[in-house]
Amino acid sequence: MTSKYETVIGLEVHLQLETDTKAFCGCSTEFGKPPNSQTCPVCLGFPGSLPVLNEKAFLYSIKVALALNCKIQEIIKFDRKNYYYPDLPKNFQISQFDMPLSYDGFVDVPSADGPAKRVHIKRVHLEEDAGKLIHPVKAANSLVDFNRAGMPLLEIVTEPDINSPEAAYDYLTALKSILQYLRVSDCDMEKGSLRCDANISVRRAGEKELGVKVEVKNMNSFKWVREALSFEADRQIALVEAKERIVQETRLWDAQKLVTISMRSKEEAHDYRYFPEPDLVPFIVDKKIIEDMRKALPELPRPRADRFVKEYGLSGYDAGVLTGQVDLADYFEECAREYTNRKALANWINGDMAAEMNTRNVNILGLGVRPKDLVELLKMIDDQSVSGKTAKDVLVEMVETKKRAGEIVSSKGLSQISDKDKIEEVVRDVLARNERSVNDYKGGKRTAITFLVGQVMKQTQGKANPAMVNDMLKKHLGE
Ligand code: ADP
Ligand code: ZN
Ligand code: MG
To answer: What's the rounded Cα separation, in Å, for the pair 131 and 112?
Structure first.
């Protein structure tokens, strides 16, 4: 069914910039404070109060625009978007309309199976957030919290050139990764610092004209964006098949029922009666400032992944995973300065460390294992003071107790046994008690040795040096 149709998706991401104060006033942006404790005449829209642009919010916006390969507008100007709603004390939002601060960019999105796919960025503009309405269950009234009113929001809008829910997911992942590298936002979807609205339409394969688009909102994870888009594509295709009309509207994703529900038919842009914000004078940014900022951009995920492959000899896959999160990439590099077996290092971080991150739902920093502590553990494996198998348990213990590897190994007596006499003693005992396997081996069944090695490991609680056990067994079996 899907091959007859093409899905067309454009995404609008709202990013809360991590500034100390709001976009146009001096109120604090700190999260989780008592309702309406972070307000002033400006963000409450008192008559006569005047907005002043937050320089940091503006520079952060330019930083993002440059990282997304956008052109920067020569004249920076703001507009009023007028609408009436209880969460908007001024009855307008300061935004940018016909002259967004940047436009015409792109993100090259790595994909698991194939070359990177380019998603074009239509515009990136700066605006202010609205307040938050709270509807307590069973209460007669709704409440409003204006702490969020006036927070700096960056809107990042793609062209409609994303062709599947999976590609939308990949784009969002790549975008978030870049935004985290820039350190301009905590990008926390649960806190609402990063939100995504998705526009989607379908058309018959090969058709030039775009279909009628539907906007989907209310997805609070990238996974839900993918699910909602997938549902919506199917719904629209079914309508086309049934020769029914697709209505341009806004729909909400219901994460319980796994469906989208109609919310309202989409307002036309001119309903907002946009006009230039008279209280903020348009200004020109010195080109030199922009060029300096371009030069000062950090190394971004894709070039960093390429460098990881070249410099550390990692696979493209490992490099991609490690550089996907800036903290993870930094962690790897800090370890790599002290530890030269980079392949093993990558395996530990992407394997056992990643498993711990998943079960605990934290990132690498949340594990609390410092780079030098991981390096200590890996060096203990290399000099055979602990077996690779035991090291896995030691790592879990490190995460749990925040103790160092050396401490755990010595206090729990986990040191690998590399003492020849000790191992020989156990080997003799195992051989004496497993005559059948010995005979199997001598009779040509070479795999019987695996069982014997296992028995020795068992008797030593996994602490015997496996290479020595192997050699010793072979010697005793007459090789
Ligand atoms: P609006 O004026 O309704 O906000 P925009 O042109 O600003 O519309 O586009 C908003 C988002 O919708 C962009 O991400 C754009 O790529 C996407 N979009 C526009 N038309 C379509 C379409 N026909 N199908 C899917 N996405 C679309
Ligand atoms: Zn304020
Ligand atoms: Mg729009």
So the answer is: 39
Q: Indicate whether this model's pTM tops 0.85.
A: yes
DSSP string, 424-438: HHHHHHHHHH-HHHH
CA 462, 467, 469, 473 dihedral sign is: positive
**Cα-based distances in Å from 377 to 207, 370, 391, 403, 460:** 59, 11, 7, 11, 20
Q: Which atom of ligand 1 is nearest to the CA of 160?
A: 16
Where are the chain's structural domains? Answer: 2-289, 299-412, 420-476
Q: Ligand 1 pocket check: which of 210, 213, 214, 250 to mutate, most ligand atoms within 8 Å of Cβ?
A: 213
Does 16 sit in the ligand 1 pocket, CB within 6 Å?
A: no
Task: Give CA 54 to chain center in angstroms.
Answer: 27
> Can you say whether the dihedral through the CA atoms of 403, 408, 411, 412 is positive or negative?
positive
| CATH code for the part of the protein at 420-476 | 1.10.10.410
Sign of CA dihedral 367, 369, 370, 372: negative
pLDDT 10s digits, 207-228: 999 999 999 999 999 999 999 9
Instruction: Quick: pLDDT tens for 20-63.
Output: 999 999 999 999 999 999 999 999 999 999 999 999 999 999 99
